[in-house]
């Protein structure tokens, strides 16, 4: 296909956001987490998207906002219970994404056995780059993704290090719920996640493909 998902025509590039966690061994290690035997995933609301030009706003309850740079896979065709060997036919393309995380909130949620929605699903928690049609990425498992804060390199990862491959993830998720055209799968963060403060500038990229910049703002209101 290689065309923009139809949602783009309505000014809304992508729809559901499905995030995969602990998909890079070194990131699981830095978080003190065990390697997953099966994909761990969670959802963000579609209102979590932000595009370049709009800021990332730290949620009022968060004291430790973390960046996680991740490759996003954009679904181009409905996928319901698809086998791995047909999964890539459902991909329209890719995007670079940030899985912004209220890390202190996530730690509290983990301790209490609560869901991660407050930590992962706040407004502006999913900055996304421009859409890259799949024809421009011959092998999505051979990409270098990186992230700098105020010009200093924080994360450098290679998508070849993913524990679960993109076809495996699409197949796995599509056996749990139907993936629709325009849905975006965040494939997990490599190591090097860390804090950002108000007025920091995050720059991130897929080497030789694209880069993007976002500014971090403090919340307008605290309660
Ligand atoms: C520990 C996490 O926050 C999981 C996650 O989002 C990841 O990318 O890994
Ligand atoms: Mg993540």
What features would you highlight for this structure?
223 residues, Fumarylacetoacetate hydrolase, domain 2, 5 helices, 15% helix, globular, binds magnesium ion
Question: Could you walk me through the main structural features you see in this protein, from its secondary elements to its overall organization?
Answer:
It is built from five helices and 16 strands. By secondary structure, the chain is α+β, with helices and mostly antiparallel strands. The protein has a single domain, classed as Fumarylacetoacetate hydrolase, domain 2, CATH 3.90.850.10. The strands form four sheets. It has a six-stranded mixed sheet, covered by helices on one side. A hairpin with a 3-residue loop joins strand 15 and strand 16 (210-217). The longest helix has 10 residues, at 103-112. The structure holds the ligand CC(=O)CC(=O)C(=O)O and magnesium ion. Magnesium ion binds next to strand 1.
